[in-house]
Amino acid sequence: MGKGSKQRPTNYDAFSANFDAIFGSKKEHTYYYECSNCGKLTRDEVTKYEVIDREPYGDRTVDRVSYEVTCDKCGSDDVEEL
Questions:
Q1: Which segments of the chain have a pLDDT < 70?
Q2: pTM for the whole structure
Q3: E-strand spans in 1-82?
């Protein structure tokens, strides 16, 4: 057998504990938006829609993804991400 043919034994519990100690657990960030009518909003107070536009690229088309955000309180689509 040559080098690298077998993986070394690993203590997965110690590895995951050390990984979390070094990098920390991933926390979900709260994104804020601002509505022209309602003011500052959390991401739970808005609805974010994915819009896919097809654009020509040479002899084929490609998808361009954009997002539209609407305020759940007043229904306005004049919402900006902060």
A1: 1-2, 4, 25-31
A2: 0.52
A3: 32-35, 39-42, 46-57, 60-71, 79-81
